[in-house]
UniProtKB/TrEMBL annotation:
The keyword rRNA-binding does not apply. Gene3D superfamilies: 1.10.1660.10. PANTHER family: CHROMOSOME-ANCHORING PROTEIN RACA (PTHR30204:SF96), REDOX-CYCLING DRUG-SENSING TRANSCRIPTIONAL ACTIVATOR SOXR (PTHR30204). InterPro entries: DNA-bd_dom_put_sf (IPR009061), MerR-type_HTH_dom (IPR000551), MerR_fam (IPR047057). This is HTH merR-type domain-containing protein. Keywords: DNA-binding, Membrane, Transmembrane, Transmembrane helix. Residues 3-72 form the HTH merR-type domain. SMART domains: HTH_MERR (SM00422).
Amino acid sequence: MSEYTTGELAKLTRVSVRTIQYYDKKNLLKPSHLYENGKRIYTEADLNKLKLILMLKNLGLSLKSIDEILDSQNSTKVMNLLLEQQLRYLHDQLKTSKSQIKMIEEIRRDLPEIDQIKIKDIRDIESAMNNKKSLRKVHMTMVIIGFPLDFIEIGTLVWGIMKGDWIPFIVGMIVVLLGAAWLSRFYFNNTNYICPNCNTEFKPKFWAAFWGKHTPRTRKLVCPACGEKNYCVEVYDEKKELAG
């Protein structure tokens, strides 16, 4: 059986020697062996008891309460209930932490674009994140509708090449052009842009936006407020949502 001095026990449980001496003084943790020279020896059972005391203390119990629980006949049942409650609390904390980690990762990922929006407090960050989600819905709608249009275009083209019948291709192209026109209108009706120079949010004229150079999340436009031409950041038009 393993035996430990006061110093070794303190090192194993990461507490001070004075703490163990205090628990001894309070009759909460007595050594299994006490030699005439004053040397105290603790066993494996004492080590486990100390770990239990420290765990209960971390749960917020006073030393008096811990002493009463350990001496009670239902000590095992009481500790099981305490541990079950602590496990539930830790699981809830874990869910909250995971949610916070996810939010922080999203903010870090989108920070270069959020930085273009005027942020004064955490509510502005939350608003910016909601704006990003709404913008993603616009993009998703365009993908969902755009995919069938691509299928019609390619499918009728292949049909025309293989069969020599170009009527389906002509009809298909009319459908594709009408669909593309609707998608363009849908996109520009639901999006605004923020000028990186003066932070003004504005909706450009359709053709200016249509022909403007662009990246996946920016478009080169002239700001109506400051007159500067820059790559402006795409955002969701929240006024459109409020009007609806």
